[in-house]
Every structure is written in structure tokens, then in C-alpha cells.
Amino acid sequence: xxxxxxxxxxxxxxxxxxxxxxxxxxxxxxxxxxxxxxxxxxxxxxxxxxxxxxxxxxxxxxxxxxxxxxxxxxxxxxxxxxxxxxxxxxxxxxxxxxxxxxxxxxxxxxxxxxxxxxxxxxxxxxxxxxxxxxxxxxxxxxxxxxxxxxxxxxxxxxxxxxxxxxxxxxxxxxxxxxxxxxxxxxxxxxxxxxxxxxxxxxxxxxxxxxxxxxxxxxxxxxxxxxxxxxxxxxxxxxxxxxxxxxxxxxxxxxxxxxxxxxxxxxxxxxxxxxxxxxxxxxxxxxxxxxxxxxxxxxxxxxxxxxxxxxxxxxxxxxxxxxxxxxxxxxxxxxxxxxxxxxxxxxxxxxxxxxxxxxxxxxxxxxxxxxxxxxxxxxxxxxxxxxxxxxxxxxxxxxxxxxxxxxxxxxxxxxxxxxxxxxxxxxxxxxxxxxxxxxxxxxxxxxxxxxxxxxxxxxxxxxxxxxxxxxxxxxxxxxxxxxxxxxxxxxxxxxxxxxxxxxxxxxxxxxxxxxxxxxxxxxxxxxxxxxxxxxxxxxxxxxxxxxxxxxx
Length: 551
Known about the structure:
alpha/beta, Rossmann fold, 6-stranded mixed β-sheet, 17 helices, 55% helix, elongated
């Protein structure tokens, strides 16, 4: 229940505080006095956005604060989930700063607008989405029917799965597009991959191939030089070794004549032995250096292919070659993987569609079950409001496609006169008829709404005094289960109030100010009399006001 509302520095409200009754609260006042401004301030509490245009004084912040009693509404889990301190005396505050920034507080803890809206959606129904003009909107009509049919949790489940379905459909479309593009590229990429697979390059192998190619291309020269070297060292007449050995013989003759000769002689002998081994190695290398045209052709083809791939893909090193090979291979694998992912998502979509079908069927069944009940009760209320011949029907059309709220489209049809065919509300209902129809629907809807506070903004627009009286009684009945705040121009409705506020405008030399006062006793009687006949009220109007208040 909304206990009180404080408004500071908002539009033409400088400072205002209202304490509400738990029953039927009426707000009356002249057009332009600020009733809609009050609704706007309450909208800030409910999470609506605002800017500095709402500031009364541009140098001061705007503050709107609402005090609720929530002890009976079992909202502890909401506060826990949102890490907020729970208190049965709930205080919500909005601040609009001169720099345009907005702040929201729940029990003095900062909160974002989403949390604020979620919380207030459990406390207040302002009936703005279900106003008289909203009745012309098929989407609003569907929301009304679902609220009456108790489809809230089914719709939450459906919309969650529908969002998943939409996301998966978009993902599938993206994968199919990628696949189509890939199929165009795949032939060329596969050709490139085949070239890299043919090369089959391993780390460090290109240098090895280049070295081997150099040897094979110069094998004859290399073999000849190695052979000549081996021959010159050990086989020629005279050979290098034979000459050195002959000289070694001469050295041995003088070994006893000089102290260093023996050391030098040892070194000399080692050189001869090293030359003998070198001759063997030269001969072995000569033997192992084969003239192999087939191997030469094979290695040359490998190296040429490596160079071609480097040039084709603008690469410089072996590392870049191998990285490009891996990149192309990954692309090919991704193409194959995309088919797997497409199959997987198609299976997932099929499962979600099965869920959606089942949920849509349940939602549709409840709509079709409760629609006739709502129509019957609304017609009874219309008859009570002097529309004895009114007919109201809800047309439910099945859709072949999934919509955001199931697989139904809804139209509210109305007829006010005998013999007139049922048509869409927007085509046939006058302003007064819309007001009565709106109240009748809301009266039934209120029985299914768990919200403690209902706000009606001039729901009596366009109806006569006699009808307003009946509407007042109908609204009064809602206070058995709801706190009602009703802005009205109707004295018949105002006469039913448990608490009556008059909103008015005071003018100073510089500007206008919205003020508010509680009317009690004679003040209330005089206000209703003025609404009946004007200011000052006639004696008959005063007596009429007393009569209205006593019934």
C-alpha cells in the first residue's frame, strides 16, 4: 500500500506531501491545476526516465519520495536477489540533479531503474498501459486477456524459449551464410591446401633441402675435387704424405742433437697421421657423393614449390610458410565444423520449437477458456452502467507462426446498440463508451491482479452524471481488495471517497505553484457542490452533494 508521496522541485510543484488512505482516495481539481504533473512524479518513483525539464528550480535537485507498507506482500526474496536491505516500511526515492543525472534509492540503497521498475510492478498498477485509448490496441487487448487468464508464468516461460529460439535462428542463419560463402572459397582453399600437403614441409626442412640441392647440383665437381684431394695427399707419385715421411726420416737423424727436436718431431708425425685420415675422409666423401638425377629432380621440385608458395602468398620465411599452411588447414576444418554446428543448432531449434508448441497450446487454451467468461462479466457490468444492449466479444485467431506471446492474435469487438454488428472497438465506441468499457474490463481484471494499489486517471471521461454515479460505486467496490487512487472530474465519483484531495494552482507575481489540501466534512461537501454547479455552489447543489455522499 502507498502510504505517502513527497514531491520537491518538480514542474510547478515546489513542495508537496500527500498521505493516502488504504481505501478510496480521490484527487480533484481544475484542468491545468497539476493533476497530470502528480501522475508524472509518481511515474518517476515507478522508474520512468526524466531530465532537467522537470526541475522547478534549475539550481536545485528534484526529489520524489514514496513510502509503502509492504509487510503483507512477501517481497523478501526480491530484496535478497537484488542485494537490497528489506524493511516492511519501504521508501523509494528518485533524485534528478541540475546536471541532468538521475539517481534512485530503495531504502537508501542505490538502485538502477530496472530494479526500480521490477519492484514497483509488484506494488502499483497505474493503468496507463490499459487506458481507454489502449483498448484500441490489439497488443494491449492481448495483455488484458492474458492477465485475466492467469497466463503470467506460462508467458514468462514462453518468452524465454522464444528469445532462445530467435537467437538460435539468427545463429543458424549466420552459419548458413558463412557456409555459402565458404563453399565459394573452399575449392580455391582446397587447391592451396593440396599444394602445401604436397610440399609436406617439416620444421627446418627447407634449409636441409636447399643444402641437399646445392650438393646434388654440384655433385660431379664435388666428387672430382674430393678424389683429387685424396689422391694428392696419399696416392700421387710423389704424394704429400710420402714427401712428409721422407722429411721425417731426416728429422729423426738429428733428434739427439737438439732438445726441442723430439717435441717437434711428435707434432710432425701427428700432422702426417691427420693427413692420412683426411685423405681417407676425402675419398669416402667422394665415394658417397653420387650423381643422382632422380633425387636431384625430386629435391629441386620441392624447393621450387616452396619458393612458388612463398611468392604466391607473399611469404619470406619457412615459419611463415608453415603458419600459412596451418591457417588454410584451419579454414578447411572450420568449413567442415560449420556443417556439424548447423546440424547441432537445427536439432536444438527443433527441441525449442517443441517446447514453444506445447507452451503456446497451453496459453491458447487458457485464453479460449477465460475469454467467454470475461466477455460475459464485462457485458453484465456494461448493463449496470446503463448500456443494456451492449455486447462485448473477444475474437481469438490462431497464427501459423510463433509470435512473441504465443500463436494467437486477439481483437476486442464491441456493439452498443440492438442489431448493430460487432466491430473493432476503435471503429464504433464513443469516448463515453470507451470509458465505461475500460472500467468494466479493469473491474474484472482487478480481481486477478495481486497489486495492492490501483491508480485510475480520469476513467470517467465522457460519461454523464447518472453513469458516473454507477461507475463510482463500481470503483468503490474495488477497495475491498485494493487501495484506489482516482483522479476525477466527476462529483458522483468524488462523493464516494474515503479521502478527498483538492489540487489547485496559486499564482504569485513571478510564477504559478501547484498546491494540495485534504477536504473533510463541509469542505468536501462544498467541493462536490462546486463540481456540480460552479463556484459559489447553489443551495440545491449543496443538498445534492450531501445526498451523493450519503448514498
